[in-house]
Structures are given as C-alpha cells and as structure tokens.
From TrEMBL, chains A, B:
SUPFAM superfamilies: PLP-dependent transferases (SSF53383). InterPro entries: AspAT_Ic (IPR024551), PyrdxlP-dep_Trfase (IPR015424), PyrdxlP-dep_Trfase_major (IPR015421), PyrdxlP-dep_Trfase_small (IPR015422). Keywords: Aminotransferase, Transferase. GO terms for molecular function: L-aspartate:2-oxoglutarate aminotransferase activity. This is Aminotransferase class I/II-fold pyridoxal phosphate-dependent enzyme. It holds the Pfam family Asp_aminotransf. Signal peptide: none annotated. Transmembrane segments: none annotated.
Amino acid sequence: MKLTHANTDVLNTLTSLRGEADKAYQELKDRNLSLDLTRGKPSVEQLDLASDLLSLPGVNYTTSDGVDTRNYGGGDGIMDIRALWAEALGVDPALLIAGDASSLNIMFDLVSWSHTFGNNDSERPWSAEEKVRWICPVPGYDRHHTITETFGYEMVTVPMTEQGPDLDAVRELVKDPSVKGMWTVPVFSNPTGWTVSREVAEGLAAMETAAPDFRVVWDNAYAVHTLTDEFPENIDIVAVAAEQGNPNRFWAMSSTSKITFAGAGVAFLNSSEENLDWYRGIASARGIGPNKVNQLAHARYFGSAEGVRAVMRKHAGILAPKFTAVTGILERRLGGLGIADWTTPSGGYFISVDVVDGTAARVVELAKSAGIALTGAGAPFPYKDDPDNRVLRLAPSMPPIEEVEVAMDGVATCILLATIEAAEAAGE
Amino acid sequence: MKLTHANTDVLNTLTSLRGEADKAYQELKDRNLSLDLTRGKPSVEQLDLASDLLSLPGVNYTTSDGVDTRNYGGGDGIMDIRALWAEALGVDPALLIAGDASSLNIMFDLVSWSHTFGNNDSERPWSAEEKVRWICPVPGYDRHHTITETFGYEMVTVPMTEQGPDLDAVRELVKDPSVKGMWTVPVFSNPTGWTVSREVAEGLAAMETAAPDFRVVWDNAYAVHTLTDEFPENIDIVAVAAEQGNPNRFWAMSSTSKITFAGAGVAFLNSSEENLDWYRGIASARGIGPNKVNQLAHARYFGSAEGVRAVMRKHAGILAPKFTAVTGILERRLGGLGIADWTTPSGGYFISVDVVDGTAARVVELAKSAGIALTGAGAPFPYKDDPDNRVLRLAPSMPPIEEVEVAMDGVATCILLATIEAAEAAGE
C-alpha cells in the first residue's frame, strides 16, 4: 500500500505519535526478547498429536492387500495409504503415487527431469530451449522460487488474488512458448492463506498454452489444513484438467508433513496416467521404491480418511488461537490507520501483511534489533525481491501462543515506527 | 570360457551324456517348478531379524544431542546414526551424510546434478560436453548401468578381477577427458563377490585423470555383509583419496537396505568436504532434510557399531548355507568338467557363473521352460549385452534353502544340456 492512501489526518496523527512510538520501541528492546515468527514449522504440541506413529506400524508389517512392506519394490507406494489419502483429497487413487516424505523432492525431480529429458509432451528437453520462463504468483512460496532459480529459469510474476492467480495475467503469459510452467499453492496458499476458486482452477485447466509441455505445479500442501470446523472444497484438479481437454496440465502434490511429522511423513503425486508413466520411467532408474514401512505406519495411524480430518481438527484447535492472536493484535494496534492490510486465513500456516510501500525491510530490521525474528522482506518473491518492499510473511505456528502475542505486539510497534519514519521522510 | 578349453575327452563325454541330460531335463520339467533365483532381496527370515524396528523409535523422539527428529531440518541427518555408522565403516562422521532409504537415489542425483550443473570440479555441466563416457567394470550391477544409460553416457567396460577393476585398463581410459566417471562396488561386488584390494583402491585414488571432475562411484552396498565370522577390511576411501592428492575423487555410498529393511533403511553419502558442500547446495533446493525419525529408529535398533556387526552375523547364519548349497551343487554336478567357473563369495548377495561362451542365454531359456527364473543373461553388462553370452548371475538370498537346492540342481542340468548342445553344434 502507498502512504498516500492514508489521509492527511492519519499522516498528522502518525507524525504526532513519533515520541510515543519511540518510547514503545525502546521498551520493547529493553525486554531483550528472543522470539521467532519465521518458520512454517509445526509446534511441539502439534507433533505430539502423532505420538502413536513413533511405534507404528508395529509387529504387523503386511498391507491389507498382502504386501510385505519391509522388502524392495512397489514404486507407486502401498494401496492402503494411496486409497485413504485419495479419499481424504477426493481424487482417484489410481492416479495417486505415494512416495517418501517430501513433496518438494518430487517437485524438484519433475522440473529436473523435464530439464534434462523433456517431459512426455516436450519437443525437446527444457535445457535445450533458448530460454525457459516460469510463472510465479506473488506473494508465493520461497522454496518454489529456489527450485526454478536453481535451474536458471526466468521467473515472471502474476498477482495472487483471493480467487487464485490472476487468470488474465496468466493467460497472457502462456501465449509465450518459452513459458513452461507455473507454481501454485491452491488451498490456503503460502503466505496469503487464499484458496484457488473452482472458476480459476477451470480457467487454468482450459487455457491454451503455446508450450505443449506447459505444467502447473499444483502444490496442495495445505489441502486439509483448516483453522475452522469446515474443510475446504477439494477440487480434483486432474479430473478438471481432463474435462477441459488438457489432461496433462497439472502435477499435483500433497503430503502429511504438517499433519504427522514434518520431514518424516508421506508425500504424494497426483497426475494423469501419461504424466505418471513418464515420471515412473525415470523414478524407476533413480530407485527401487519408496519407504513402504512408513507408509503403512501412516495408514495405521490415520485408519481412514475421516481419521485424517479428525487429526486436522486437533491441529486447528492448537493453531487457530495463534492466528486469532496475530490478526487480533494487528487490528487492535493498527486497525483503521490505513497503514497495513493483512489476510485473515481460515487455514494454512501463514498470514501475509502488506505494509506501506518501502517499509517492509525496515520493519524486519527494527524487529530483529528488538529480538523478534521475522522472515526476510522479499522472501515470498522470486529472487527474494519484493519490488514494492511491501510484504511481510508471518508464521505463528511454532512458538507458544504467549510468545506469539508478545512478538506480534512488538511487530505492530515496529510497523508503526517504520511507517512514521516513512511519513516523516515523505514530509521532508 | 571357451568350449575348446574343455579337452577332447570332455567333449566326447559331453556328447555321450546327451541322452542322460535330456532325460534329466525332462524330469525337471515334469516337476512343474516355480522357483526364482533372480532377485537380490533379503528373505523373510532375514527381515524378521529387524522386527523391533517396526515399533521404533518409540516414545522418545529426541536424539542424544537434543534434536526433535519429528520436525523439519537437519540436511546432514542426525549425528546418532552418522556416528554409529561411521564407526561401523571406519570413516569420518564429519564427512558422512545420512539420508533417506536409498543409496541408489543419491547416486542418481549425483550424476543428474553433475549433468545439469556440473560438479564442484567441472569446467561445464556434463550435459554441455560433446560426449560423456563412463567406465563399467564387468560383470557389474545392472542398476548402475541403467543410470548412466538414462543420461545417454557411453559405457565402456573394464574387466572386474578378484582384486577389483583392472587398474591398467582404467588408467588407460581416464586419459580421455570425456571419461567422467566409473561405477564400482568395492566390497563383495555384485555379482562376483570380489573385493577391491587396498592396492587397487590406492591406484584409483592416485591415478591422473584427464577430466578434472572425474568421479568414482564407490557403492559400498555390502560393506559389512560377510558370510563368515570375519568382516572385510574397511578402506576409508575418502581418506585414501586425500592422501593420494585427489580428495574429491570418490563419491562413496552405503546403506542399511540389506541389514534392516530393504527400501526402508537409511542410506549414506561419504565424500570430501568440498564434494559434500556441492551436494548440500543442490540437495537443500530439493528438500528440507531426510527422514530423521527413521534414522533415530535405526540408531536405537543397532545401539552401536558392534550392534551392526551382531546383526550381520545373524544374516550370515541365514545366508551362508544358501551360498554353500549353490556352490556345492555346482561342484558336485559340474566340477572338473571344465564347462563352468563360478565365484565362491565370502560376502554379498550374488554368485557369478561363467558358462561356455555363447550358452548363457540358452541356460536361462532352458531354466525358464523348467519353471526356474534366472536373471537374464547379459544383465550384469551395460546395455544388457554380454558380448560373450557367458555370465550368469545367481541370487540365492530370497528363496528358502530347500528351494535354492532344487533350483540349483535344475540350473546345473540346464548348464549341462546347453553345453552339450553347443558341443554338438561345434562338432557338426
């Protein structure tokens, strides 16, 4: 947002608050805090929900269809977990592969293998293209950007809206045959918490792309991660793509990382039969199959798709108060001043705050000096470059709620002070 | 081996045995067997050794140095398993990364990332080279060959000897700057069971290579997989390479796949600091870290390096009789005839049999018709092409010993019959 959006009264008010803000900031520093709102990690309390998993699968190592999970083989993963997860997400288990713990691993490999070999719709490997461009809805997920940056792709941004990536902007970009793909987090997106609407999903599925091998990475990391009593609509994006005549459009991932254990869960790839066959062809050169014992442990732990939802309600019970604390403090301290906008997600792991243009990095700096670690300004943008120096990503999941409250009150002070500094500089 | 190696008496004897061999083969077929000697997989009895692991790590999820294994992070893996495994293998834990289950995954990624980005000693990515050639000691491991074939590298063979890859042949090949790497299984090699001597190891470490980014993949899959009371000498190949002035020469892997659960163990990468830093740089774009819960479960299961050895003695107790059965039957049925040579490994998972040139595929075919599945002739060679049609790979670990005995007696009959056919054809 622009400072000029704040009216003259607000500007005057801000300037008059300088002394008060300085005092509040000095008091904040004097507390010698050491708090951290940077990490989208589950808290110990959340991890404790899955304690039973630490002793699973237990003595019975056989799947319900008779597979000994301890031995080699089974590149698609075991059907027990595939069927359960497919039901939880509302997708076709035959088009769902269960892998090791990390969906990020799968995304990297899909890009890497398209780069080296081309994918099943490629005329040539992406590495043989003069240039590869990649659409990044912003603000977005930093680790997505890291992958495409690693492969030297030119990242082009489109605005993320409350309905999903700006469809007109995307449609314009995909007329360029060098545009090979697009990142998206469709549900409770990182960091805004926004969810792609069915209309936008259908638009992405239906649109014509100049590149025949264009892919949308549909990173459904927060598919069931509600903060309320309600679960989001699950769009079976692979089915939607088939209906719209572009069956190979999406590579869809999900995982249990923020449901059971972060880094020790089960990750999934859902896509068309052709896409999966291409993936299997290379995956089977890379290895003999995923960790089926861990998959069976997860199937036993959840029991059913309803078991997944039951666990998620418990997570919501822990997380929702932290999110409420964040938005409540922002509202109380900054509401009505016209100097900050923030999202109020009903799921996911992050809250995104728009501060006055040019001040985000200063807020992070002020917070750091006061012992409050915030994600670096720019982190949700390709090349870590927020062109407006505007967006803050807040991650309240990890610290105890008392710390979230103290930290957020401090952050509000830092936003206020940074804005006043900017107002003064503008007035000079 | 060549049929002419068999003396005239043997040739006459063979021809005179035709009727008897035909009868034996017919009887074999009449048994309607369904036996399988193709798979280098542990048996159920072996997998049962690790039953305790199915309920580990148990309620205590914290490493001895205080890491909560359930959350994200720790790209190098946990120190508990790294220290234990480093001691078991006699390597430096600081140069040992613990990953997910599959060392094959690590090998594929090392080649893939050298291909796309170049490794830390590359002048350019391997994909930018006009041609990449790769040394394959033969007979060797088919899944190694699949990786280099996937990347389109030209595989050139050197003989595997009882002391390791033929060093003179290797030294000659590495004068070519397009030769970028070499596969090797240093201990109880697949499929011969032979082990690289210290002298050959030092030679590989010391030799000059035209390519500055040449790498030996030191796939120590059977490092502790003895069939006797004794464990093989563990060569700390990364230290040897440093001593010889080529610290980055080796990428060394190992895993617990055939110690605990195949496909659900822990895999390791041991290399120089520079090599590991390069690997970490890309691995950290690919993901957030390995499954630390499974690593902790393994550390608890083994308890110590001596715990690893104790488990391996139990494996030897199960496997050794099967190996003895194989070599015993070969000796009893074919010994002294000069028509087959076989290895008598003191460790590992395979036995390699040289039959008369031109007959290996026929032996596999005859066995198949009699209900005995053997690994395809040619499998241990690049492009699955055994130029002499000579080598059979036998894998006796998976079936119960009674089945191994029946199958091997049948295999001996097939070898005999195929040789007689060849002798008759030669006499025509």
